[in-house]
Write a structure and sequence with these properties.
The protein is an alpha+beta fold and 591 residues long. It has helices at residues 3-21, 26-39, 45-48, 55-73, 79-84, 90-105, 110-127, 136-147, 155-166, 178-193, 195-199, 206-212, 282-285, 331-335, 372-376, 396-414, 420-433, 439-445, 448-467, 469-481, 485-503, 506-524, 529-540, 550-556, 563-590, and strands at residues 218-223, 245-252, 255-258, 271-276, 290-293, 308-315, 337-344, 347-348, 363-369, 382-385. A hairpin with a 2-residue loop joins β2 and β3 (255-258). α7 packs parallel to α24 (550-556) and α21 (485-503) packs antiparallel against α25 (563-590). It starts with a helix and ends with a helix. It holds the Pfam family CitMHS.
Length: 591
């Protein structure tokens, strides 16, 4: 084993461990790994930067803009509500929902689809007295089914496609993956409305949990007329460093200040709303000039009116908030919203809000002004789960342009009139020239951290290939699986890709597995397409945990799920996808 191979393998292993332990943002970890390979001389600058000009990565960037234009046009807003129907038969409604969701996700990014429709589905269920936990995991799974149907269904498919083109191979055609994923998806929907529906729990949502337990964490106090606190700032009055309570709102003469700054001065008769551990309310009672209301019946609806609103936000995988306390993150000053309560899995965390260490998947109940949603809808730190508002674009002409543009783009690529990259580029040019989307609007939808992650992992994949590390790993892999034949090798590739997807990210898992799989295919003298298709399906078919895929994480808290719910419902579905993939791959590409 040469020094170069040893060094690359060590760097990759350290990267995998760092990603699994979430010691920093995934894009930063992978960037450091690529930089190490460049500075050590393993990769030349040209090779290290090849990922940034990779056709697959650039296509992903263009598709972010196309999908953003369709989203803001408002053409999607009525789809789910209409597809769910009247709700007389929940299982029928489930089929009616999962079909359109899979169809949308075949051509649009599934993350915004799940974010958009989680509150719609939850409201629909609440109106019909159906537990939303019976519908939200299926919503997530349906978008995963759809993402594997087409070349543009997920960024993972495009990354693999880009690598194949780099190697001088034919990439995926628009619907090539559907040979496997369409039957798998149909069986997946059948499973979800039969066995899966029975396995899904009936639980309170995070919204219901926040509402039902509001008496346990909300309290109110009044500044007395002759109080020594009058004229003092919040900080001077000692209201910022309470041991278990957190000031979230001041009501003065009917006007509300949500996300209360430390410099705000108190006035007589101010009503102060606190959240936190009510057993520590004695701290308030000890403050002279502050009258604490006992036996209060405060409800969440009492916190909001025209100037203040409540909404939920789910902490994302790549959030800068993760592993920090609310206080350390300076949430109030950074985002202009106060954290009222935090919901994790199916329970509210009963601690002082400022001391809660946030984790991906946590659902935050936020009190903010009306401008908050507009400013932070596309935040990378959290997904806003709030009822759909009027679409940003109300011009029906632009809605038609957005929809017809994406349909034309798909047709151009599907019929091989233009390659996928050129089709997406043409679509973006049309959207800009027709002013369906602006340059400022486009920036909101481009996920730069995802693009950086893809570009860097492509460079690492090149290092694995060029140094011979991929060939060495492939040789060891073949030796281990030689007793089970080519089907055993396909199964092993599928399982390994699934494992990587669950503990790191699907794009990183795919890029690392592709050069290894190409080396395996060359050594076994089989069509490498068999392994590429297997990796594309396995990297996306993540059902067994809430952390392996963004769509699963988004519904985790709002649905009131526990980690075990994903295991119980998702593992049989993972096995189903594995069986379907291996059988079809074998008969289509290996026989």
């Amino acid at each position: 084993m040469t020094f170069e191979i040893t060094f690359v393998i060590i760097v990759v292993l350290l990267m995998l461990v760092s990603l699994a332990k979430e010691i920093a943002k995934p894009a930063f970890i992978v960037f450091i790994a690529l930089a190490s390979l460049l500075l050590s001389g393993i990769l030349s600058p040209a090779d290290a930067l090849r990922g940034f000009s990779n056709e697959g990565m650039l296509t992903v960037a263009l598709l972010f803009i196309v999908a953003g234009a369709v989203k803001q046009s408002g053409v999607l807003n009525q789809i789910v509500t209409k597809s769910l129907g009247g709700g007389k038969s929940p299982r029928k409604s489930l089929v009616q929902m999962m079909g359109p969701m899979a169809g949308l996700s075949a051509f649009l990014n599934n993350t915004p689809i799940v974010v958009m429709f989680t509150p719609v589905v939850r409201k629909w269920c609440k109106e019909r007295n159906i537990a939303p936990s019976k519908f939200l995991i299926p919503l997530s799974y349906a978008t995963i089914f759809g993402g594997t149907l087409t070349l543009i269904g997920t960024s993972t498919n495009l990354v693999i496609h880009g690598f194949m083109l780099e190697q001088g191979l034919d990439g995926f055609s628009m619907f090539q993956l559907a040979i496997v994923s369409l039957p798998a998806g149909i069986l997946g929907i059948i499973y979800m409305v039969t066995i899966g529906y029975k396995l899904l729990p009936s639980r309170r949502t995070s919204e219901e949990s926040f509402e039902e337990s509001s008496r346990e964490y909300l309290s109110e106090a009044y500044v007395e007329a002759n109080s020594p606190l009058v004229g003092k700032t919040i900080e001077e009055a000692g209201l910022r460093e309470l041991s278990g309570l957190y000031l979230i709102e001041i009501i003065r003469n009917g006007e509300r200040t949500a996300s209360v700054p430390s410099y705000k001065k108190l006035m007589a008769n101010d009503k102060l709303i606190f959240t936190g551990v009510l057993s520590t309310i004695v701290d308030l009672q000890n403050i002279k000039g502050l009258r604490v209301e006992t036996g209060t019946n405060l409800k969440l609806e009492d916190l909001q009116n025209g100037s203040a609103s409540l909404m939920e936000a789910v902490v994302s995988h790549q959030s800068s908030l993760a592993q920090k306390t609310v206080k350390e993150s300076k949430f109030r000053s950074k985002y202009g919203a106060g954290v009222v309560a935090v919901h994790r899995a199916d329970v509210r965390i009963n601690d002082k809000v400022g001391d809660i260490v946030l984790k991906p998947g946590d659902t935050l109940l936020l009190l903010s002004n009306k401008d908050f949603e507009r400013r932070w809808t596309n935040s990378r730190d959290f997904y806003l789960i709030s009822p759909l508002k009027e679409p940003e674009v109300v011009d029906s002409r632009k809605s038609i342009i957005a929809l017809s543009t994406i349909i034309s783009m798909i047709a151009l690529a599907a019929f091989n009139i233009l390659p996928m990259f050129q089709s997406a580029l043409l679509a973006v040019i049309v959207l800009f020239f027709t002013k369906t989307i602006t340059f400022e609007g486009a920036k909101k939808y481009i996920q730069f951290d995802v693009l950086l992650l893809i570009a860097c992992t492509i460079g690492i994949g090149i290092a694995l290939d060029q140094t011979g590390a991929a060939a060495l790993i492939a040789q060891s892999f073949i030796h281990i699986t030689k007793g089970v034949g080519i089907i055993g090798a396909v199964i092993a590739i599928y399982l390994l890709t699934t494992l990587f997807t669950e503990v790191i990210t699907n794009n990183a898992a795919a890029v690392l597995m592709v050069p290894i799989s190409l080396a395996i295919a060359n050594q076994l003298s089989v069509d490498p397409m068999s392994f590429f298709v297997t990796i594309a399906i396995a990297a996306s078919a993540s059902f067994a945990t809430p952390i392996g895929y963004q769509a699963n994480l988004i519904v985790y808290g709002p649905g009131g799920y526990r980690f075990s719910d994903y295991l119980k419902v998702g593992i049989p579905l993972n096995i189903l996808y594995l069986i379907v993939t291996v059988i079809i791959v074998y008969f289509v590409w290996l026989v």
